[in-house]
Structures are given as C-alpha cells and as structure tokens.
Design goal:
Layout (H helix, E strand, L loop, with lengths): L3 E10 L3 E11 L4 E5 L6 H8 L7 E6 L2 E2 L4 H7 E4 L11 H11 L4 H14 L15 H13 L5 E5 L7 H16 L3 E6 L2 H7 L2 E6 L2 E7 H7 L1
Parallel strand pairs: 3-8, 3-9, 6-7, 7-8
Antiparallel strand pairs: 1-2, 1-4, 4-5, 9-10
Helix pairs in contact: 3-4, 3-5, 4-5
The structure holds adenosine-5'-diphosphate (ADP) (2 copies).
Length: 226
C-alpha cells in the first residue's frame, strides 16, 4: 500500500480558476519525496486537500489505504502535516501547544507528556517549554510546528516549504533532522521550489507546474536530464 495515493485530483477555486487539473501521484512507504514547483503551481493546494483544510473539487486521496473522505479518522492518525504558516496560538506556551495536539489524537495525559517531551527535546525546544510561542525566534517556531506534527507518531510527515525563509544554518540542521526521522522509518513528503533542497534530501520527485504533474521520477535521473 502506498503511504500516499492521489488519483485525478482537481481543485477549482471560486468556480473559475483550476488550480489542480487532475493530478495523480503515489508515494511509497519509507520514501523521501519532493513535490517541486514554482510559486502558484498548486503545491499548497494539494497539501491543503490532503490535510482536509481545502475542499477538493474531484478525485481521491488515500493515506496508507485510508480514504480521507470515508475513513477520515484512520487516515488522520497516519498523517502529520506542517503547513507553511504558523497556525498555533502565539499566547500559549510551547509545551501546551504540543500537548493540546496530543489530546486531539486521543492520547492519555501520561502518553501525551512523554511524547511531548520526546519531540521537544529532539527539536531542541525543551528548554523553551514554558515560553509563550510569541517569544520564540522564527526558526524555533518552525521547529515547534514540526514537533506538534510528530507528537502522535504519524507514519507520513508532509511539510509545506519547510525551509522557506529559514537561514542556511537552520536549514542544514532541519535537513539533518528530517534525514534522521526518515531513516527511522517515517515517510516524508516536502514541497519546495529549490531544486537544491530536493537534490540534497529526497529520493524521488514530482514536478508540478500550473496544476499538472509534468514529471515524476527519481532525483538521480532528474539530475541526469538537466
Ligand atoms: P473562502 O473562500 O474560504 O472565504 P478564500 O478562498 O477567499 O477563502 O481565501 C482563503 C485563503 O486563501 C485566504 O487566506 C486568502 O488570503 C488566500 N487566497 C485567496 N485568493 C488567493 C489567491 N489567488 N492566491 C493565493 N491565495 C489566495
Ligand atoms: P503553490 O503552493 O505551488 O505556490 P498554491 O496551491 O498556493 O501554489 O496556488 C495554486 C494556484 O491557486 C495559484 O494560482 C493561487 O493563486 C491559486 N489559489 C490558491 N489559493 C487560492 C484561494 N484560496 N482562492 C483562489 N485562488 C487560490
């Protein structure tokens, strides 16, 4: 079973603009997969649909075989999503933001505390656990987004332009972290408009342009074609 399977996915905004023109895509378990494309290609729309934040016009999405429409709660357990924009409350403390997410996934208190500690430590945020989110640097906020997405132990992690606007040093450390969790078995899909990021991290890549997948291949063979 693919970690992610998308079939004939379409999105029409405002009944006139076709942002996704029927895309299909499979990502296999264990893969580190890039969705590469310029601004406006449809990357965020695709992620929005997978995470049920954007309503699709047509098509199907399955996460480890679970249809996001008919089997939403099962699909949701497999999935962690890191959107591009910070969407936690800036007034809440770091630890509470992650704990609250664990609660959404039905973890009991001790499990939630344990997993929160684990991921805050992994992302070097444990010292900041009692700090309100608004006091964090941009890089720390981005790491908080990742800790929150991982707290329920998803097998598939999807990140929307995780290193956009991130300085080179933090980018390197985020890359190392993502490589580690992929090596430990988590399937990762990230969107990017940097070929360099796909090249450095990913095994397979789909190139999306104007709502169409124009190439779907290994990163190695993409580089040979350039
Ligand atoms: P709704 O239809 O749910 O009221 P909109 O579709 O107007 O919401 O907008 C949803 C979000 O997408 C908003 O944050 C908006 O700023 C953004 N948005 C709207 N139009 C565009 C566009 N053409 N390109 C990119 N983002 C857009
Ligand atoms: P990417 O993430 O690749 O930059 P998006 O998925 O954000 O692309 O956008 C794809 C296209 O859909 C763009 O042309 C964008 O302007 C448009 N779009 C995105 N969100 C909205 C929205 N809420 N309402 C109308 N158009 C949108």
């Amino acid at each position: 079973t693919p970690a992610l399977s998308i079939r004939n996915l379409r999105k029409v905004y405002n009944e006139k603009f076709e942002a996704l023109k029927g895309i299909s895509l499979d990502v296999m378990p264990g893969d580190f997969f890039a969705v590469l494309g310029p601004n406006g290609a449809g990357k965020s729309t695709t992620i929005g649909i997978i995470s049920s934040l954007v309503r699709k016009t047509a098509g199907t999405v399955e996460v480890f075989g679970k249809n996001i429409d008919t089997d939403f709660s099962a699909a949701k357990k497999y999935l962690g999503v890191v959107p591009q924009e910070f969407n936690f409350s800036m007034f809440e403390k770091v630890q509470d933001i992650v704990l609250q997410q664990a609660g959404y996934y039905g973890m009991n208190r001790s499990q939630a505390l344990q997993q929160t500690e684990r991921y805050l430590k992994q992302l070097s945020l444990w010292d900041k656990r009692d700090t309100p989110a608004r006091m964090l640097s941009g890089g720390m906020k981005r790491r908080l987004m990742i800790a929150r997405a991982l707290v329920h132990g998803p097998q598939l992690l999807i990140l929307d332009e995780p290193t956009a606007g991130v300085d080179i040093e933090l980018r390197r450390s985020m890359w190392d972290f993502l490589r580690e969790i992929n090596a430990a078995g988590t399937t990762i899909i990230l969107t990017t408009h940097y070929l360099e990021e796909a090249e450095s991290l990913c095994r397979n890549v789909a190139i999306i342009d104007q709502g169409v997948i124009v190439k779907n291949t290994s990163v190695k063979s993409l580089l040979q074609q350039l």
